[in-house]
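QA checklist item 7 of 12: single-chain prediction sanity check.
[x] sequence parsed
[x] length recorded as 220
[x] structure emitted
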Amino acid sequence: MKREIIITSDGSTTIQLPDWNEQYHSKHGAIQEAYHVFLDTGFFKIDLQEIAILEIGFGTGLNAFITFLEAKKLQKKVNYVGVEAYPISVEEIQGLNYVSELKALEFQSIFDEMHRVSWEKEHSVSKNFQLLKRKQFFQDIQDTAAFDLIYFDAFGAQNQPELWTEEIFLKMYKAIKKQGVLVTYSAKGSVRRAMQAVGFRVERLPGPPGKREMLRATKI
């Protein structure tokens, strides 16, 4: 499938799939969306000094990188697992401008390392950030009560409805600890109902630029 790098409204890049009319991040602002959906309503709300995070769709590494930056500021320890079935290419990684847009040039080597390190093995990216990348289909996730927070960043239900079903959210429910939180950019009614059907308490929250709402689910 054809993929191309585009500039989003906040100046940061993302990867677009023209055939699907789909982007890895919002065309209204990749960095803005990442902060709003995953940090502001997820990471910053978890009152723990050590946090285990599962990302569904490691993709460009943007969510992992900004989590690293904010964890460093807050002196929190993060154990980060990124699941991705189709890793992006070296050429695509080199075309992303997140480090410069985030004014984090001193951490360019960290962003590069996040993409360079081997899959299926835990790596110490820094003293407070452990990264494990798993090349895996989301349907094959079998973790149990392992995570405090899930970044659910799969492609949209209009193109991959099989990733937004009760079956998938039951896996998420099992993977997360009690009182753990799942955040996603999606606000579809069918997604909310699928989350509720497996036991999550679901909130509608204001969405990032370009979206009216998003969802946050808690395992109660």
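[x] summary fact logged: Helices lie at 30-40, 62-74, 90-94, 98-101, 108-116, 166-175, 189-197.
[ ] second reviewer sign-off
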